[in-house]
Write a structure and sequence with these properties.
Mean pLDDT: 94
Strand content: 5-15%
Radius of gyration: 16 Å
Number of domains: 1
CATH class: Alpha Beta
Number of helices: 9
Structural class: alpha/beta
Shape: globular
Order of helices and strands: EHEHHHEHEHHHEH
Largest sheet: 5 strands, parallel
CATH superfamily: P-loop containing nucleotide triphosphate hydrolases
CATH architecture: 3-Layer(aba) Sandwich
Number of strands: 5
Helix content: 40-55%
CATH topology: Rossmann fold
C-alpha cells in the first residue's frame, strides 16, 4: 500500500462519499463521514483553527465540511492523499434536491456544514447556484492540485480500479460498494 498520512476526499456531498467511506472500510482504512464530523464538531474546530481529535482517530475523511477546507488539509497534513469525487452534474443536482428536500426553502434549515459548502446563509437555496458552486469547486480543486501525484479525480462508477491503483493496493474480491444508490 502507498504510504500516506491521511486521505481527504474533497468532492461535494452526493458525489459518492458514502460509497467511498464503505470502500475504505473494506480496504481496512478507517474512514470518517458526515456522522462522525457532526458528533466531533469538526466544522467548529476548523473554523476556530483548533485541532480536532477526529483527525487523529481516522485515516480517511469525506463529506461536508471536508471539501471546503482542502487547502488547509493540504498545508497541515503533509504527505496526505486527495481524492476529488465527481459526478455528472445533472444527476448530482437531482440527488442534492432529493437529499435536501424541503430544507431548500430556507438555508437556515440546512446543517452548518451544508451552508459552508454552498456559501449560502439565508433565504432559499437555488439549485442553479448550487450547480455553479459545484462546478467552481471542481475547477478550483483541479487547478490547485494540477500536476501532483497525490491527487485523484474519481467517479464511483469507475469502481475499484483507479482507486486501488492510486492507493497501490490490491483490488478486493468484494464488489465496489454503491451506497445510497437511487432507484431509477
Amino acid at each position: 500500500m502507498r504510504k500516506f498520512n491521511k486521505i481527504f476526499c474533497i468532492g461535494f456531498h452526493k458525489t459518492g462519499t458514502s460509497s467511498l467511506r464503505d470502500a475504505f472500510n473494506i480496504l481496512n482504512i478507517r474512514a470518517a463521514h458526515w456522522g462522525a464530523h457532526r458528533r466531533n464538531r469538526l466544522l467548529h474546530s476548523l473554523q476556530e483553527g483548533k485541532h480536532n481529535k477526529e483527525l487523529d482517530n481516522f485515516d480517511a475523511f469525506m463529506d461536508v465540511p471536508i471539501p471546503s477546507f482542502y487547502s488547509h488539509f493540504d498545508q497541515t497534513y503533509k504527505n496526505s492523499l486527495f481524492i476529488l469525487s465527481v459526478r455528472d452534474v445533472k444527476s448530482w443536482s437531482q440527488s442534492v434536491v432529493k437529499h435536501i428536500g424541503g430544507r431548500m426553502r430556507d438555508a437556515k434549515r440546512l446543517a452548518a456544514e451544508e451552508r459552508v459548502q454552498y456559501d449560502h446563509w439565508r433565504g432559499p437555496l437555488d439549485i442553479k447556484k448550487c450547480i455553479k458552486k459545484y462546478n467552481t469547486h471542481v475547477k478550483e480543486v483541479k487547478e490547485y492540485f494540477t500536476g501532483r501525484d497525490d491527487f485523484l479525480i474519481f467517479d464511483v462508477k469507475e469502481g475499484w480500479g483507479s482507486l486501488c491503483n492510486f492507493l497501490d493496493i490490491k483490488v478486493p474480491r468484494k464488489p465496489f460498494p454503491h451506497a445510497n444508490k437511487s432507484r431509477k
